[in-house]
Specification:
This protein is α/β, with parallel strands linked by helices. It contains 10 helices and 18 strands. It folds into 2 domains: 2-161 and 333-364, Quinone Oxidoreductase, Chain A, domain 1, CATH 3.90.180.10; 164-310, Rossmann fold (3-Layer(aba) Sandwich), CATH 3.40.50.720. The strands form 3 sheets. Strands 3, 5, 6, 9, 10, 17 and 18 form a 7-stranded mixed β-sheet that branches. Strands 13-12-11-14-15-16 form a 6-stranded parallel β-sheet, sandwiched between helices. Strands 1-2-7-8-4 form a 5-stranded mixed beta barrel. Helix 3 (163-174) packs across helix 4, helix 3 packs across helix 9 (315-327) and helix 6 (237-247) runs parallel beside helix 7 (263-271). The model has no long low-confidence stretch (mean pLDDT 95).
């Protein structure tokens, strides 16, 4: 039995409970977690913005050590340190055939099948986003683990599983930021901090990197991550866009990355992007968040608006590159973590995210 944070129903409070994990089946591995990041997507799963069968153990950003492997597993062995991959590609579907593994049709299948039981009464539990890392241990498909590159601390490596792969990918895969370009980032949470660091690297420090957040307290975090300018979001979205254009020679940013998932923020990011620029939406919003554009402006501004799933990343390709940035000191994982907590601290971390406080909270086992 292991301890886990269990979501009994949508919008129910998390409770710490003991769960029974099965032995790994064919093609599966058991992981002893070292740490798990608390991501806004976990909050979205808990409140129903994203669908998740319940009762469930949430958490999808984690790293740990392999303890047992099932039949047929050869890529990892007991004792290996790994990063969890919540969107493992099957390699066979239409999107994998297009070399777009982040859109894999089968990647979400694990989340719809029970994987463990409550120790108290045998109730089936579902794994949040297929990984269930808000627990001391988990059992996942061997495809859902990535060997941890050498030289990366295991605890901080948890951030690689979502925030860093998403932020790095948004800059380098989705927006394809070039040296000297200007970048504006909306939302200075865990993913936003990763976007800021990645933008600083991609622009070679030669372009303006502007951070926008509703909280003035985020300025220190943003500047430490590479922001050259920090703006507190104005009550009038058009005023924020006007400030950004003023900071970018009157044209607007070459690239805007939205990490909030709100209609008004997406609209502001679009308006703050120059003609011919790129607006990338990373934040996950609800179905009620409707964004509108006129046909004329779509033609006239010639901007590109794109969504971004998991940073449009192929983790097997991007993780070694990110690891090299970490080893070289260009990307600082520890600076993104503003709080270390236990499992019982997750509800407070959710509240902090709702209030716009802090960067990444990290559950350390």
């Amino acid at each position: 039995m292991v301890r886990a944070a269990v979501l009994s129903a949508v919008n129910a409070p998390l409770r710490i409970a003991e769960i029974d994990l099965p032995d790994p089946g064919p093609g599966q591995v058991r992981i002893r977690l070292a740490a798990a990041g608390v991501c806004h997507s976990d909050l979205s799963l808990s409140n129903g913005t994203l669908r998740q069968p319940v009762p469930a153990v949430l958490g999808h950003e984690g790293a740990g050590t392999v303890t047992v492997v099932g039949e047929g597993v050869t890529d990892v062995a007991p004792g290996d340190q790994v990063v969890l991959n919540w969107a493992p590609a099957c390699g066979d579907c239409h999107f994998c055939g297009l070399n777009e593994p982040w859109l894999c049709s089968a990647s979400a299948a694990a989340a719809t099948k029970p994987y463990a039981k409550l120790a108290s009464d045998g109730t089936d539990l579902y794994p949040g986003l297929g990984t269930a890392v808000f627990a001391e241990e988990t059992v996942v498909s061997a495809r859902a683990v990535l060997p941890l590159p050498a030289g990366i601390p295991l605890t901080e490596a948890a951030l690689l599983g979502c925030a860093v792969l998403t932020g790095y990918g948004a800059v380098n895969n989705s927006a394809k930021v070039r040296p000297g370009e200007s970048v504006v980032v909306f939302g200075v949470g865990g993913v936003g901090l990763s976007v800021l660091q990645s933008a600083r690297i991609a622009t070679a420090g030669a372009g303006a990197v502007i951070a926008v957040d509703v909280s003035p307290a985020k300025e220190e975090l943003a500047r430490a991550a590479g922001a050259t300018e920090f703006l507190v979001a104005a009550g009038d979205p058009s005023a924020t866009a006007k400030q950004i254009r003023k900071l970018t020679g009157g044209h607007g940013a070459d690239v805007a990355v939205e990490c909030v998932g709100r209609a008004d923020t997406i609209r502001t990011a679009w308006s703050a992007t120059r003609r011919g620029g790129r607006t990338v939406v990373v934040g996950i919003g609800g179905q009620d968040q409707q964004v509108t554009f006129t046909a004329l402006e779509l033609f006239y501004f010639g901007r590109t608006l794109s969504g971004c799933v998991y940073g449009d990343s192929d983790p097997a390709v991007d993780l070694p590159v990110i690891a090299e940035h970490v080893r070289a000191g260009r990307l600082d994982l520890s600076s993104m973590v503003t709080e270390h907590i236990g499992l019982d601290g997750i509800p407070a971390a959710f509240d902090a995210m709702l209030a716009g406080k802090g960067g990444r909270a990290l559950v350390v086992f």
